[in-house]
Structures are given as structure tokens and as C-alpha cells.
Amino acid sequence: MADEDNAKQQETQKKQDATKTEKTESSDKKSLVGRFLPWIIMAVVVVLFVGAGLTLGRMFAGSSTPQTSGDSEQDQSAQVESLKAKDSAADTQKTWYYDLEPVVANLDVPDVTRYVRASLILVVSSEVDEKKGRLFLDEKKPILINWLTVYLASLGLEDIRGDMNLKRIQSQILDGFNEKLFPDSKPKIKQILFKEFAGQ
């Protein structure tokens, strides 16, 4: 009888131990989920906000700021239309070049005076009549030089080093110039070439 009572007590003890072990494991799982759930929720919210920000940025990137007068928009679009070259089969593959005077700008480097000097050549599409285009670019040159100076001043020393950075700079200058000169039409500047690009 004592053996049977002992066996029953051991069996009861095993059941109680198993129940305690299951409760401990389930509480550990719950505590892990409870600890990581806020982090998971925050990560999902951050990803959603980043996606929404990028989408909105791309949507509004193409829109330009409104002009103060409608006449200036009409004048600029009329100027762009007048730049178109007369259609001819021989001119469709030709482009022409426009030299932009050198620009010197201080780099964004703290505690040290560093600067960059850049001379650019604009490769202009054959869709633009060369004579009218040169007059148009001469007229808009102060705007281009101002934009280029501000852009270069925003760069750091590491931003102007290396092949990949120079290609990125060329691409951003190309986009900036086309946006400034031809905001509501097809880009007419096809490429930006460096005549000189020196940082010191």
C-alpha cells in the first residue's frame, strides 16, 4: 500500500511539474512576444511612413513653384518654342556645345576653407537652333551660375572625390539646369561635360 501511495504521489508530482513547465514555457513565449511586439509595430510604421514620403516626394518633385505672374510663364514657354531648330534630316544627330564660365565655390567643410573650381560644357540638343540657343543661354547664364554655385557649396570634400561622385554631380547638374531652363518642356541639355573640376 505504501508503494501504491508513493507511486500515486510521484505521478501527481510529475503532473504538477509538467503543468508548471508548460506554464513557464508559455509565459516565456508571451514575455518574448510582449517585448518584441512594440519594436515590430514601430518598424512597420517607419517603413510605411518612409514609403509614403518617397511616394509623395516623387509626386511633387516634378511640380515647380508657382510663378508670381502668368506672363513670365508664357514668355518662358514662348522663348523655349522659339528655340526649336528647323527640321532637317542632317541636323537630327548633331548637337552643339556651350561653354559656361568657371565657377568657384567654398565646400561645406567645417573649420577649414576648401573650395572647388568647375568649368562646364553644356551639350545641347539639335532640336534647339544654335544661334537662338546661344542667345537664350547667354541671357540665362546668371541663373545657371547662381544655381551651380549654391549646389557646389552644399557639397563636402568626400562628395567630390571619385568617379562615381563626379558622375552623380554631372547628373544632378544636368537635371538642375534642365529644370531651371526648360521647366515645362522636354529637356534640351543632353549632357554636362567637365572642362575643369578641381577641389582644394
Q: How many domains would you count in the coordinates? A: 2
Largest sheet: 3 strands, antiparallel
- Computed Rg: 33 Å
Question: Any idea what the CATH architecture of the largest domain is?
Answer: 2-Layer Sandwich
Summarize the structure.
Helix content is 58%, strand content 16%. It has 200 residues and is α+β, with helices and mostly antiparallel strands.
Structure overview:
- The chain has 200 residues and is of the alpha+beta class.
- It folds into two domains: 1-63; 92-199, 2-Layer Sandwich (Tetrahydropterin Synthase, Chain A).
- Helix content is 58%, strand content 16%.
- The protein is built from four helices and three strands; from the N terminus they run ααββααβ.
- The chain has a three-stranded antiparallel sheet with strand order 1-2-3, with helices on one face.
Label this structure with key terms.
elongated; Tetrahydropterin Synthase, Chain A; 200 residues; single chain; alpha+beta; three-stranded antiparallel beta sheet
Write the layout of secondary structure elements.
Layout: H1 2-61, H2 70-82, E1 96-106, E2 115-124, H3 130-153, H4 163-181, E3 189-199
Antiparallel strand pairs: 1-2, 2-3
Helix pairs in contact: 3-4
